[in-house]
Design brief:
18% strand; TIM Barrel
């Protein structure tokens, strides 16, 4: 069998984690761009839609017609994704469940780790979210099922209770773990990750450990990447340029009832941030605000490493954030076209539902048992 890389672009379709943003500007318009691009290039992709946010909008829609309008646009956009033939799966940030409404603005909570909530909370949020998506989409696709889940902030620890609920709701594919990812305030530490490249069945008590036997859950690690100093410096320069070049977008003139950041320590405090030092900066493949040169270098480096891996079928997750596309539409299109041209013989684009079907038919692709 010829070595093949399975590229999975998954878009975390959401507002900002701190609650700021508006569905029209941060979700509808950039996702419309990505859908149009994918149709033009005959590209498969998956939208991981943030449902806890929508449940919060539903709670407060009668208090403010602007929130109700955003709720309606959210529904219409998700239905458009499905009508356009794209994969729709589940993404959750539990801080939306603690949202409060003050002076026309929603403020989210400070606990971003679903796994740290009690069992009843986890079960109810998963149940409500799964049922909401199914009710929204099953008239368009009677066979629609949720197969994949991504927790907000990549937070899957502690794992034992959460995995039980995911299994109960027939979720099989889980995203979020990455080699070297540590976020102390969110109780995330993946430094003991036993498998950083291949899909694997997780131990029921610890998401970083490979199960010694097959089970119904499959973890797909994010494709990790350490930029070289030159690439890192250019990325830092681009970030500074973007910051200095920020101008009034006009959104503040529309009185569009954006949600806003809640004051308090960020759950992302302590996350490894962009810096230049002797310690390698580690991140994962992502699209959202980066220049083409960075996107190109990151994928080139990952695929060069994975060519040396003995496995013949390797998934490569690319995490997309359309909410951050505003100044990088041309870079995104150029990057995807670059992948399709340069790696035409090595990669194929697919979505998470298709990948779930593939590993169901080929269970040998998923690792379990003793770790070498």
């Amino acid at each position: 069998m010829k070595k093949k890389f399975c590229v999975l672009i998954e878009d975390d379709w959401e507002l900002m984690g701190n609650g700021s943003g508006n569905v029209a500007s941060h979700q509808y318009l950039p996702s419309l761009f990505l859908m149009n691009l994918a149709r033009k290039l005959n590209l498969k992709l998956t939208f991981m839609v943030e449902v806890a946010q929508q449940l919060a909008f539903i709670r407060f829609q009668d208090a403010d017609p602007r929130i109700r309008l955003q709720r309606q646009l959210w529904d219409a956009t998700v239905r458009l994704m499905k009508e356009s033939g794209f994969d729709v799966q589940l993404h959750l940030h539990p801080q939306w469940c603690e949202a409060t409404l003050k002076e026309g603005r929603l403020k989210v909570g400070l606990n971003w780790n679903l796994a740290s909530y009690d069992s009843l909370f986890q079960e109810k949020l998963l149940k409500d979210s799964v049922e909401y998506l199914q009710d929204l989409l099953q008239d368009l696709d009677p066979a629609f099922k949720i197969h994949a889940f991504k927790a907000g902030t990549w937070a899957l620890q502690p794992f034992e209770v959460l995995q039980g609920h995911l299994t109960r709701f027939n979720i099989q594919i889980i995203l979020g773990v990455r080699k070297g990812l540590v976020i102390p305030n969110a109780q995330i530490d993946y430094t003991t990750l036993e498998e950083d490249t291949l899909p694997y069945h997780p131990d029921q008590r610890d998401v970083t450990r490979v199960s010694r036997a097959r089970n119904s859950l499959v973890i797909i690690p994010l494709a990790y990447y350490s930029p070289d100093p030159w690439t890192l410096s250019r990325l830092a320069a681009n970030a500074v340029k973007a910051k200095l070049g920020q101008s009034q977008s006009g959104r503040d003139q529309y009185d569009c009832s954006e949600t806003e950041a809640r004051e308090g320590p960020s759950p992302l405090e302590g996350k490894v941030r962009l810096h230049l030092s002797s310690r390698p900066y580690m991140t994962h493949l992502k699209i959202g605000g980066q220049p083409f040169c960075y996107l190109k270098s990151s994928f080139d480096a990952v695929i060069q490493r994975l060519r040396k891996h003995p496995a013949e079928r390797i998934p490569i997750i690319i995490e997309s954030h359309t909410k951050l596309y505003a100044k990088s539409y041309l870079d995104v299109e150029r990057f995807i076209r670059y992948l399709m041209d340069k790696y035409a013989e090595e990669i194929e684009f697919t979505d998470l539902t298709s990948f779930w079907q593939e590993v169901t038919e080929n269970p040998q692709y998923v690792r379990y048992g003793d770790v070498a």
